[in-house]
Amino acid sequence: MNPFQNLFFRLKEGNLPLGRIEAFSDGIFAVAATLLVMDLKDISLPAHPTPLELGRALVAALPQFLSWMISFVIVAKFWLNHHHLLHLAGHADYGMVWINSIFLMFQSLVPFPTALMGQYPNNPLAVGLFGVTMAVNTILFIGLYAYILKRTARPEMLALEDPLVLRKSWVGPVSYLTGAGLAWVHPALAFGIYFATPLFFITPLHRKHMARPGR
Amino acid sequence: MNPFQNLFFRLKEGNLPLGRIEAFSDGIFAVAATLLVMDLKDISLPAHPTPLELGRALVAALPQFLSWMISFVIVAKFWLNHHHLLHLAGHADYGMVWINSIFLMFQSLVPFPTALMGQYPNNPLAVGLFGVTMAVNTILFIGLYAYILKRTARPEMLALEDPLVLRKSWVGPVSYLTGAGLAWVHPALAFGIYFATPLFFITPLHRKHMARPGR
Amino acid sequence: MNPFQNLFFRLKEGNLPLGRIEAFSDGIFAVAATLLVMDLKDISLPAHPTPLELGRALVAALPQFLSWMISFVIVAKFWLNHHHLLHLAGHADYGMVWINSIFLMFQSLVPFPTALMGQYPNNPLAVGLFGVTMAVNTILFIGLYAYILKRTARPEMLALEDPLVLRKSWVGPVSYLTGAGLAWVHPALAFGIYFATPLFFITPLHRKHMARPGR
Amino acid sequence: MNPFQNLFFRLKEGNLPLGRIEAFSDGIFAVAATLLVMDLKDISLPAHPTPLELGRALVAALPQFLSWMISFVIVAKFWLNHHHLLHLAGHADYGMVWINSIFLMFQSLVPFPTALMGQYPNNPLAVGLFGVTMAVNTILFIGLYAYILKRTARPEMLALEDPLVLRKSWVGPVSYLTGAGLAWVHPALAFGIYFATPLFFITPLHRKHMARPGR
Prior knowledge:
With 215 residues, chain A is mostly helical. The first copy, chain A, is built from eleven helices and no strands.
């Protein structure tokens, strides 16, 4: 038997309960969100500062606090939307588990570009990589969404879905990449766009009545 | 459709089960509480100390141990009271999820001002920022409390609530900010107040019989 | 009303479900156990080592690996025994929650004395402090045990308890403190005792048939 | 009574529910997977880089990103297979808890060899130790598997098991150790094998129909 022969076949198998997938995902979201504070350890502080010197050093570290805050809000946004995605699914097959794991891998990466952006707030590459990472995260999220809609969604939940939800979700990657591009014009533009993008996803998009706000 | 048009409208939607909100919150509380020990890594120790030298270095690091201890107790206090808050709510809407997330953001920040206070125990700004952070945390907690009381509380739980609970909760911010102010007189006063404040919240305030201790 | 007046009265109140106490505790156990690996980051390695140089540096770091291993086993031991303790309790009051939180505080401290013992394996104070920390942890665990037996245990579970269980539990602190004392004679004696002590607690002591191994 | 007398006897006792074992395991998997990103902090970056300099520094850190990615996928693979293992078991005895804890100990070690391999990608010992660690993890996993099959599996689940599953699982250690050996020929060979090995375990092996892929 060639063990790799039926690799993709195997991914369509499996009927896993969602409990431990939620537990593993929530664990990674929570740890990633909390590890962001470790980035603030990189703030360089004088050895025996007066209050004034300490205050100045902290004010100079404003980009690091901003990066931390933007990142936390984005991770919380992904957590909230992920929550709804798993609620949409009735079970999981191995393909869904692996798309979810690759998504979580890039979610756990978030503290790295956050630190980079905080430390080099005037370097367009550092600021841009933050946007690229978030775009990759959103694209993986959309992939997970598409997979669930196609293969593991509960029929009664599918009926409530906005048929345009996947198309609307591309607002995320486009917005993050626009921010990444504008970082080369002025970093403040990128910070602004990174801050505004999660507002669009403040609630999950996949509910039909989202398309009819008057309802 | 203007995607931001109905932003605040959307926040009032949603009927989320509390399970994953608890899991995410407990994860952040647990990681934040445990990461506090990483602050003790900043203790500067000699390279090849004799027992006496090591002992002296550890005694000199007493403010760091005190900061760690005070912080852990405060995080545990927030966890306990948060536990009760979610128990009071019957479900969550998106507004509640986001107030909770912003509260958790500042909860996950706690290791930073703790490290600052531990490293610069004689710097009134460092010691004061600890109190300010805790006041912000408590105000966000009160905001979450008020939101739940108004929108998502279970009726049978509401009946057990002390009507003055929100007013009493302001003891927290006032006390932490008093400590932050007194740090400019003498840091030891601030440490004392930070240590005493959680005692007031050692049990949740929101039970009616709290107002009638003789019952 | 004097807010501190009824402090101890309030601790006897409360009828909390055990679910979130388990979640918070398991989170702290898991994070503390996993953070231990961060102590191995302190191993000093050459910049561009040959395999031989790297091998020598890792062999020289043997005490750090030993400390990590002993600590992980001890945390796992506490987790297993804590598991049974909560199973013994039917509910929690605020006193139990706070004894548990203080116990978890010292559990989350474990990475610090572990790093100290790993870095200064020939310093009797460093090696001794590890034993003292573990003794404090065990004493707090015994306190939690006694509290549950007295106030919150389920009657049907109480009947299965070994009446001598609290007395037997003192083997732990005595053994850890003996190790801490012997660190001043030779550190290897302390390492040996720290390694052997958890074997006594490899299964919870609180089951009556533990006293009758022939059963 | 000799407390160690009945050590192995005691390990066969116990009838523990699986809930908290899952919670502790998922916590360690999630924290270990997320801590891997801390290894990327070791990337040495210039102080005030131009975008070009920063880009070059990040490209030079490619082995660290590769190590992080391979490690995350391997931890996710262990998590998925562990999930199924606990699903196979109906309950746990103390022996199973301890084999599981020792397995989790080496799982929590993963960030260390990952950092080593990322920092010294041309050092065969550093690259080889990664494979050895993964082989040890897989052997412990096989031990846990064998123990569950023999002692705690649910009969209805046992019937679905491939009788050759344990033998097939040895593909893992053999493959990781082959990679570790080939690291001495060329590190790229080891990276390739470490990357390919998890593909074999992309779905659990223990389902009978795995042996009959045409089904």
